Every structure is written in structure tokens, then in C-alpha cells.
Amino acid sequence: MRSQVFVEMERGQAEHILPQIARVMDEARLSFDELEAIATIVGPGSFTGLRIGLAAARGVALASGKKLIALDAFEAFLAAIPIDCATGLPILVAVDSRRGPVFAQLFGPDRQKIGEPAQVERDALLAFVPDGPVAIAGDGQAAFAALNQARFMMLTDHFRIRAAAVARAAALLGPDGLDRLPLSPLYLRPPDVTMPKQRPL
Hints:
Elements: H1 13-28, E1 37-41, H2 47-64, E2 67-71, H3 73-79, E3 91-96, E4 102-107, E5 113-120, H4 125-128, E6 134-137, H5 142-145, E7 152-154, H6 163-173
Parallel strand pairs: 1-2, 3-6, 6-7
Antiparallel strand pairs: 3-4, 4-5
Helix pairs in contact: 1-2, 3-6
């Protein structure tokens, strides 16, 4: 039996994530011994959310003796898109940074990555995508919709990461997924912190 939980919340993730994992395992009637691996996302995303998610994944993996398979957020969004959707088109996965620029990764029609992920200012979005039709997925796709470009195919059903898609992607990777990405947060930008002012001596 399969199970997944999705709860959208502004805060409180640290208190809820482990009870949600326990709920999913209970609904799926599985013990941790029956799992093959633990899949997690390393980012990009919110600083606090990534730290909470990675800490929980590491804790579950350590307690269960299972290996960790890491995906980035771009791969997680892509995994939810059916293979017969946007056939023949490059796919741009855009992640909302919540702070202006968009985190972006381009995939070819074969769904392989093209180039490196980047933080793209909104006035530079058109320069980041190739000429011709492009499919846009991810929770940052609204930035492209605002450009009013008819050549963009907005995959509006794929603007949230779902645990089931992450699990499927990790399962397809199999042993090749182990150690493929560093188990540290992928931020793509410096933390939003304000350093305390120096007190005069």
C-alpha cells in the first residue's frame, strides 16, 4: 500500500515532519526495515526548510541503517511530469526563491540536464531559455507567465513537489543514486542574514 502526506505550512515544519513520516509509514503498513533507501531533496529552497528536511532524512537513515538518495528540487519537479507530457520540448524547471530571482534548470527533450542550475533575475529570464517552444514547470513558473510569451507551455499541474514523485525518481536511480549529490543544502545564493553592527571600542 502506498501513502503520502502533503501539508502546506508557513512554519512549524520541524515539529510536524517526523509525526508525518510516522503517519505515512503506518498508513503504508511498512516498517523501516522494509525500506530500501531514504530519498530526500537537497534544494534549492528555503534555508530553514532545507535544513529541517535534510536533518530529518539523515536521522531516519541513521536510525534505520538505510542509505540516502538525494535529488535536487529541479529533478523532483521533473519527476512528477508524465513522460508523454511536453514531448519533444525542452523543459525549464523554475523554483520560486521567494526573494526576487528565480532558481532555474534547463532539461533537454530527453530530460537530461543542460548546463548548471542558476539564479536568474526576472529581467533575464528570456535570455536563459532557448529559442522556440519551451515547457515551464515548477513553483516559479509564474515569473514566465508574466512575460506573456505564447511560446511557453505552462505545466500548471506541476508546481508542487510531491513525495511520491521523489520516491519514483529515487527508485529509478537505484544504486546509482547513492552518493550522486552531496548531502548538504544546495542554496544557489548566500544566506539572507544581517550581521550585527560592530560596537565602538
